[in-house]
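Ticket reopened. Same input as before:
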Amino acid sequence: MNKIIDLRSDTVTQPTPAMREAMYRAEVGDDVFGEDPTVNRLEELAAEKVGKEASLFVVSGTMGNLVSIVTHCQRGDEVIIGDQAHAFYYEVGGSAVLGGLPFHPLPNRDGMLDPGEVEAAIRADNIHMPRTGLVCLENTHNRQGGVALTPAQMDSVIRVARRYNVPVHLDGARIFNAAVALGLDVRELTRNVDSVMFCLSKGLSAPVGSMVAGDKDYIQRARKYRKMVGGGLRQAGILAAAGIVALTEMVDRMAEDHEAAQLLAQGLSQIKGLIIDPQKVQTNIVVFEVGSPGPSAQEFVANLAKEGVRVIPFGGRRLRAVTHYGIEKQDIFMALAAIRRIMAT
Ligand SMILES: Cc1ncc(COP(=O)(O)O)c(C=O)c1O
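Engineering reply: fixed in the latest deploy. New output:
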């Protein structure tokens, strides 16, 4: 059977052989008592990588953002966030239901928030209004095509938040993609935020897991919220072992994913009926549009799946393809050939 070229997300469908081996050999204990040596090692390593005092292993990016946000805020506080941010667009239910936190969305443009609009959205100390509890940034920005924010862009928003003593949380699900694309140490992007969540299970290729990092006191409080939402995982070292491989062996190779994404974007831009500006593709996410007249996004996905290539509809006539470990140049050429075929029929 031909290989399925799965570009639906950067979560790979199989762990790398080195991860399997590390999981098999992982020394474990009960993490709820802080006694899993492999989880402890991962938490130290992750904190060190992003330049924070401490970190916490969580099962997913969604759990990581939820725990991060509720740890910063008190019930009823308002969270300023981009209207296209993952933590708003897909996850607002968690913070609303479990945190009692209203969100204040502002327009996202190329992954950014406008610092002036953030300042205008921060509430005055007034009994008529909620307190502003948090500002959230996202880097790279999923719904806006994987764009990588620079430290200067991030700092322009962080400075405003600081002026009003509002903490900043970074949804850095793909922060290592941003660092690799910008040619920076990831700490340049995480240094000035109060907390960062990043995923081990996306471009870093681990089977499960994300990390939340911040100062010691914050992570201690976050640990309590993680337990509340069922995140005390006992012998989690089995999973953390793969996370350690992800952080030590899988960061630099993401440059290959970015090259593959660029190759895909260039190829798509040559196909009649598709709309994409390859210059906007900076990392591993390729968002493109099927022009009208032409198949709907759902028809495109279904037709392409029959050819063994999987992408997802991404709102309206847009589609998303994501490159990752296991996707080689050859796969991109095959995917492009399949897309050419379905667009020609
Ligand atoms: C930017 C961003 N944040 C958070 C998440 C949530 O991560 P998870 O799927 O591990 O819950 C995603 C998932 O795609 C994401 O793209």
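The mean pLDDT is 97. DSSP finds 14 helices and 13 strands in the chain. Please confirm and we'll close it.
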